Amino acid sequence: MIRSAAILVAAGSGRRAGDGAPKQLRELAGIPVLQRAWAPFAASEAIGEIVLVVPEETAQAPPTWLRKGPGRLVAGGATRTDSVRRGLLSLGLEVETVLVHDGVRPFASEGLVGRVLSAASGGPVVPLLPVVDAVKEVDGSGIVLRTLERSALRRAQTPQGFPAGLLRRLHEAAARAGRSATDDAALCEEAGHRVVGILGEETNLKLTTPADFDFATWLLETGRVQ
């Protein structure tokens, strides 16, 4: 019986990363970003199933490396929330715990995956990091309104972990209401469910801009990540 599964969300176009292939399909030191992202889940004996949610055209005609990967391919939707819901629909009802991970976070460690999975047995969990810079709230014109107290603020990462039944219900409700959310933890928060934060990893960066790719390449070249 498959008790735990992982959904890697990799259906975006990645326009902010510049011209070329979607950023999740680009290579870092000769290995595609998405392949690096799925590695810690494929290495976990506790993860019984992996779902890779990719652009529709990629799902229909995947490159060889993706076709031979450890996960089942699912075509994504118009939003991140739609894509996660499609991934959930592809899972069997026997799955008890599900982790949701950004397919453009290539450096999450096996240890982080294990900690999230363990904590998720008790309810929703999200990796968090402290905010070290001063944070300003601005209006639509960029005028600073106030400085926020950063001691109560955190940066959210993935993988985020959830009881599978709860996440299914929240996504069904969001679909009926036509709502989307920044991440899956936000759906839990909006519905009044307690979300526990655990310590994330500084190297678990999300690739968004060309500068992020440069930094990721430097991390690999210097041996700070594998």
Walk me through this protein's architecture.
With 226 residues, the protein is α/β, with parallel strands linked by helices. The protein has a single domain, classed as Spore Coat Polysaccharide Biosynthesis Protein SpsA, Chain A, CATH 3.90.550.10. Helices cover 32% and strands 23% of the residues. The chain is built from 8 helices and 12 strands. The strands form 4 sheets. Strands 5-4-1-6-11 form a 5-stranded mixed beta sheet, with helices on both faces. Strands 10-7-12 form a 3-stranded mixed beta sheet, covered by helices on one side. Strand 8 and strand 9 (144-148) form a beta hairpin. Helix 4 crosses helix 6. It is globular and about 50 Å long.
Keywords for this structure?
alpha/beta, three-stranded mixed beta sheet, 226 residues, 8 helices, Spore Coat Polysaccharide Biosynthesis Protein SpsA, Chain A
The second-level CATH architecture is Alpha-Beta Complex
Strand composition percent: 15-25%
**What are the low-pLDDT stretches, counting only 5+ consecutive residues below 50?**
none
Roughly what percent helix? 25-40%
What's the CATH class, please? Alpha Beta
Using only C-alpha atoms, the radius of gyration works out to: 17 Å
Biggest β-sheet: count, sense, barrel?
Answer: 5 strands, mixed
Strand order of the largest sheet: 5-4-1-6-11
**SS element count, helices:** 8
H and E string:
EEEHEHHEHEHEEEEEHHEH
Number of strands: 12
How many domains comprise the coordinates?
A: 1
First-last Cα distance:
32 Å
